[in-house]
User: Fold this.
Amino acid sequence: MLEKRYGGKHLRVLSAIAILVGLGGSLIAQFKASGEIFSSIFGTTYLTGLIVGVIVVGLYSIIGGYTATVWTDLIQGIVMVFGVIILLVATVQTAFGSFRLDFLVEMNRRLAETAPNMLALDGGGGMPIIMIITMSVIGCIVGIAQPQQAVALFSMRDTRVAKSAMVIATVFSSILIWCLLPSAMLGRLILDPSTVPNSDAVMPILTQTVLPPTMAGLVMAAVLSAIMSTVSGLIVVAASAVSHDIMDIVAPKVYHKNPVAWDRAAAGLIVLICFLFAINPPSIIFWIVLFAFGFTVFTFVMPMVGVVLWKKATCKAVTIQMIVTMILIPAWQAMTTAGITKISGLTVGMIVTPILFILISLTTKNGSQEDVDSLWEAYKTAGVSSSK
Assistant:
């Protein structure tokens, strides 16, 4: 997509590198989550649970490809919706004796007594406001800047399907958010903190506490569905980045002799590497996901804006902005971790990325303006016809 819009084959390689770093981080986080859940369900070690989760998801993603991912996502999505609703009802009943529609009011009252910091925007000073703003920005634009989301959008049959998907996705996401977040907050009232080894273990322990074994199994299946759905999509996109965007450029003759085999080999290699990192992950799931999402979002959001909204965006702007972002965010985050600065690398990336992209676009021109004009006209025509 970026190559066609900006006319630079090197953008495929840059995009592939960014995808591997960003989505690789997301895969590590999801593998860690699957290891925590499987170990909790079967009473095994984290490593055993991790191996089980990686084998299950890795096999059907590598063998089945994108078609398998789409169908499993549909089934897993249905399981997720019912599972999180059951969890919310059971959690409210355990916390207050019965399910009540005003549980949010009572939850806030109880938390104000036992854990007032949970009701403060900054967690009682635990998180800087600028970081909260950065997280909010990432959440708002993640849908248009994540490569796996773009693949799903452009795989749709027509605009009618796309419009329906927007409504379904909004309702689906709302159900998950308004069931899982209150459930996790109520867990603070139900669980003894000494029994929870880390924040990643809250959901498995809470589920087994508030539900009988059979129902707990169903809810844990819902949580695993969320993980597996995410992981399968990440594997397919990351593998495509290696095989199609790197192999197809570096060794096109070798790749085209058996593209399916190379795609599967790339998927297997990515699964193996992320599995090795997940054995001893660097942080809790939330921070891994946040960095991975932020890295990917701030690398791709401005180039994607140039694809659909801004005709003056140039290839040089995309190239320089992507390279700077991919170097700046990890380097600055390393300084933050070392205590040299208190500002997150994601915050710096959020500020620098749009400024750099806009300034360079305004001072440079596209190499082939005619190609850009024709693509832009085709886009406008498609937009007009779809709105009729």
Notes: The chain has a mean pLDDT of 81.
